[in-house]
Structure formats: C-alpha cells, structure tokens
Amino acid sequence: MQVFWLVRHGESTWNVRGLAQGHDDQARLTDRGRRQARGVADQLKTRPIRALYSSDLHRALETAVPLADRKSVV
Questions:
Q1: In the chain, which stretches have pLDDT less than 50?
Q2: Hey, is 48 helix, strand or coil?
Q3: Helix, strand, or coil (residue 68)
Q4: Are 59 and 47 in contact (CB under 8 A)?
Q5: What is the pTM for the complete model shown?
Q6: Which of 7, 11, 31, 68 is the most buried (most CB within 10 A)?
Q7: CA 31/CA 41 separation, integer angstroms
Q8: What are the residues facing 12 on neighbouring strands?
Q9: What share of the chain is helix, strand, coil (3-state, %, to 5)?
C-alpha cells in the first residue's frame, strides 16, 4: 500500500495579509511558517518517505527543505 502525505506550505507573508497567492512567487515564509515546516518534518521523520515533490515556488521549497534534510531526500 502506498501512502501520500500532502503538506501545504507554512504560513507566508501574504497569508498574514489575507492575500491570495496563486502562482505569484513574492510571498515568503514567516517565522511561524518556518517553525511549521520544521514541525511537520519532525512529525514525519520516522515515516518511510521515498520521494519528495514540491512546487518551484519559494514558499513551497522552503517548507520542503526541513523534511528533505531529515530524510536525506533531494
């Protein structure tokens, strides 16, 4: 059985302002968003993850990095 974990990006500067982000790449993670990214990486660190996929948007990549670092996934 395959399991897919879907993780939304952490809180961004545009989330805080109530703005829709779409595919615009100006939003960055807030300090809270970076903590959320580390938190999800901690929660999934013992799960068998074979691949990690992310949008090319900065906020998504920044969210994925802590998990990739903990899982040695590139």
A1: none
A2: coil
A3: helix
A4: no
A5: 0.88
A6: 11
A7: 16
A8: 29
A9: 45, 5, 55
Six-digit token string for 12: 């961004």
For residue 73, give the nearest of 41, 37, 32 by alpha carbon: 41
**Are residues 21 and 51 in contact, defined by beta-carbon separation less than 8 angstroms?**
no
Q: What is the C-alpha to C-alpha distance for residues 72 and 74, in angstroms, rounded to an integer?
A: 7
Burial class (CB in 10 A: 0-12, 13-18, 19+), 30: middle
Query: CB under 8 Å to 46, separation ≥6 — which residues?
Result: none
| Exposed / middle / buried, residue 27 (Cβ in 10 Å: 0-12, 13-18, 19+) | buried
Rounded CA-CA distance 29/58 in Å is: 8
Instruction: Quote the CA–CA distance of 4 and 27 in Å, as a whole number.
Output: 26
Tokens of 71: 């899982």
